[in-house]
Structures are given as structure tokens and as C-alpha cells.
Amino acid sequence: MPKLSILDVSATIGCNLSCKGCNHFSNYFSYASKLDTDALIKDIEVILPRLDIGRVSVIGGEPLLNPRCEEIVNACRSHTNSPVYLYTNGLLLLQNESWIRKVLEDPRVFLRISIHLKEVEEIVKKFNHPKVLVTEHHTGKDRWFDSIKKRDNKVYPYNHNNISKSYKVCSCPNSQLYNGHLWKCPNTAFMRELLSITGQSDADEWQDYIVDGVPVDCSDDELTKFCNNSRIAENVCNMCTAKPLHFSAAIQDSINKSLATTHANIPNKKSKNR
Q1: Fewer CB atoms near the end CB (10 Å): N or C, the chain?
Q2: CB-CB contact of 113 with 215 (8 Å)
Q3: Residue 116 in contact with residue 15, Cβ under 8 Å?
Q4: For the chain, which residues make up each domain, given as ranges?
Q5: Would you say 24 and 59 are in contact if contact means Cβ atoms under 8 Å apart?
Q6: 3-145+173-199+215-233+248-265 topology per CATH
Q7: Residues 62-88: pLDDT tens digits?
Q8: Number of H helices and number of E strands within the chain?
């Protein structure tokens, strides 16, 4: 069975925070940005039994913005024997306390809270559960960086022409399940949505990096190839920096968020698989 170290399952792409350097571009996508939950659950049912996964992560954006997040977590639990981690920024934790405590009774399920605002410390204390894993981004000690260049409300590839270094410093080299496909990383998964928002869908500098994911119902050979390539540097990595410019992970971005639409409606000039 093909192996993946980590598979990120996006329960939503919108977020109620705007963390600078977000590696899923959720600092661009408004909290109202939604995906098709019925389709996602079907994708989970198809792809998870086909993979040997080290860890399944239910993420966003902020996954708790999806009122059906419990169903998504349960679908993951039902279709893999791997550990399942629910990631959240904690702001909606107490509103979802009942069902989260219930799924945490499963020894394979864990809750990971990324604290970006100091007020979440009190929420974590109130929740008070032994299976909560906390990452403290709000202290300013943790350092993030922008994977792609940002200038005048536009985005640009770095093109440092050192893909091995770009991959080595990558902040999120995790495979993604999104919109019926597997993707090498968040940048490849959400690039069409981002470029639609910035008005750059047809920009020449991005065409080499607008790639196609692998459908969840792909052949066994295609799935094996995807998994084998999931943890190696590829040409698409050239969009990302090889020379990170770090800043505090506590910074909230000032970008005006937009409603993201699924990339299926956004054309690309070149068709490439990844």
C-alpha cells in the first residue's frame, strides 16, 4: 500500500484569523469561504483506505468554522487506522466542546491547538483535556516566513532556482486532500484560489506553478508515483523561497480577505500533474 507521512484534510479554507505567513493562504480567504462537505466526505471514503498514512490532520483555515467538522473527523476515523489530529486556533473550541470531547475518547484522535492570540490561553485552560497538544505562536518566539513574494496586493514566485534548498526550508511539505484531489503541498492545492483573488490567474509568471492534483480515484500506479514523489524536491518547489525572511508568528496580517471560490472554475494555460 502506498505510504504518506502526513495527509492534511481541509475541512474549510476560510479562517477567523489572518496570520502573516499562513502556509495555506488562509490570511487571504475570508471566514465565509466554504467547500463542499458532502464531496469531501466521499473523497475521504475513497482515498484513505488506499493509503498507509503516518498521520491524518483535519485542518483549515479554521476547521471549526465548518459546522460539519465532526462528520469530517468521524469519516477520517472510520476509514483509516492512522492517528487523526484535529487542528484549531482555539477560538471556537468551547462552542464545539461536547463533540470534540467525544471524539477524543478514541485513543487515535488528538487535538492540536495553535495559539496565535493570548486570549486562547484561557480557553485552553477551561477545556482542560490531557490529549490537547499546544503550539504557542503568540509569544513571538516562534518564527514564520512568506513562502512566496508579496508586493502591492499581488504575489510572485521567488524563482531562486535552488529547489533542494526551497524544499529543505519548506514550512509545510505535507500532502493535501482538497477538492477531489491529492496535492504535493498547500501552495499547489490553493494556488488557483489565491491567484483568482489577486487577479493573477493568467499571469505568465505563475503558469509553470499552476499544476493539477492527482484525483482520489486515480490508478494504483498514479497513486504510488504521487506518494513516492511526495517527500522529494520537484520543479514546482521553485516558486517558494530558498532564503526565508523570518518574522514573528504572532503577527496578524492586514490583507483585506476575499471570498474564495473553488479552483475548478478557474482556467490554467498549462496542464501539469502533481
Answers
A1: N
A2: no
A3: no
A4: 3-145+173-199+215-233+248-265
A5: yes
A6: TIM Barrel (3.20.20)
A7: 999 999 999 999 999 999 999 999 999
A8: 7, 12
